Amino acid sequence: MPSLPHNADELDVALLRRLAEGPQASQRELARDTGVSLGKINYALRALIDKGWVKAGNFSRNPHKLGYAYLLTPSGLEAKLQLTRRFLARKMDEYDRLRLEIQHLQDELEAAPGEPPQAAPPSHPQTEPEPRE
Description:
Elements: H1 8-21, H2 27-34, H3 38-51, E1 54-58, E2 68-72, H4 74-111
Antiparallel strand pairs: 1-2
Helix pairs in contact: 1-4, 2-3
């Protein structure tokens, strides 16, 4: 499952990507998939529609059931590309900063006097920690 959006740009990217994959997604499905409230999805979708990035339409073939589709417009496709580029650049910058911080912490541990070197803990432990006695 993708991480939760932290700001409006990240939510826009998540919504635009999700709508590109499945335009018939309900707002409830979009809320579940992005990890935000239904009200926030409604607000974000309205903002995307107001920007002209998404077009909403009732395309149901069944007259007794409302079916909406959220289609990306050409400007929405362009916005998706630009937002994705910015998002990727931010995430790569975060990754580089975290990698440097981890390296500095490892260097500190290796240089600590009187402490035997310890292996780094696994990045994704698979077992429960042993109980203390």
